[in-house]
Amino acid sequence: MASNAKGRLQQVTSHLVGQAGSSSSDSIPKIRQVGGDSAGQRVKDKVIIITGTNSPIGIGRATAYQYAHNGARAIYLCDFTSTHLSTYQAELSSLYPSVDIHTRQFDAGDEPAVKAVVDEALAKYGRLDIMFANAGI
Q1: For the ranges 12-16, 34-38, 55-59, which has the lowest average pLDDT?
Q2: DSSP assignment of 35-74, as one string?
Q3: Are 105 and 85 in contact (CB under 8 A)?
Q4: Is the pLDDT of residue 19 over 50?
Q5: Are the C-beta atoms of residues 49 and 121 closer than 8 Å to each other?
Q6: CA distance 27 to 24
Q7: pLDDT at position 114 over 60
Q8: Does position 41 have pLDDT exceeding 90, yes or no?
């Protein structure tokens, strides 16, 4: 049953990725904005780490785009798999040039790896405001 569900998920993902337009370098779906902007930039100048950001149709990726749109200072895109991370970094950097976008590949269940990215953010920016543990472990 689990392999059947996994196979169906892969088919749906392939179908969605194959149909949606995106950057010139990849055929990943664009992020859809379903609501209007909030009353202001809610994460202005915040330093953010998000795990589980590699999926083209996932919550982690969509959250990264929302945080960038709402004025984040720096966003760390993290995932166990790095298939799309560089594409997202390029897209976000072109759409939001004032936001520092970093990518890191590691297993979010590996405590020393998580600590390393947190320590890096603290060393570089002197703060960490949001840690979104979105990865499925």
Answers
A1: 12-16
A2: S---SS-TTTT-EEEEES---TTSHHHHHHHHHHHTT-SE
A3: yes
A4: no
A5: yes
A6: 8
A7: yes
A8: no
Judge whether 30 and 22 are in contact, CB under 8 Å.
yes
The DSSP bridge pattern shows strands 130-132 and 100-105 to be unpaired
Six token digits for residue 36: 């209007």
What does the pLDDT read at residue 3?
65
Q: Rounded distance, CA 137 to CA 131, Å?
A: 16
Answer yes or no: are the C-beta atoms of 68 and 75 closer than 8 Å. yes
Nearest of 70, 130, 125 to residue 95 by alpha carbon: 70
Say how far apart CA 50 and CA 42 lie, in whole Å.
16
Contact residues for 84 (Cβ-Cβ < 8 A; gap 6+) = 26, 28, 54, 55, 56, 61
Quick one: average pLDDT of 129-137?
Answer: 92
Do residues 110 and 137 make contact, with C-beta atoms less than 8 angstroms apart? no
- The tokens for 47 are 């330093």
- Which pLDDT score is estimated for 11? 66
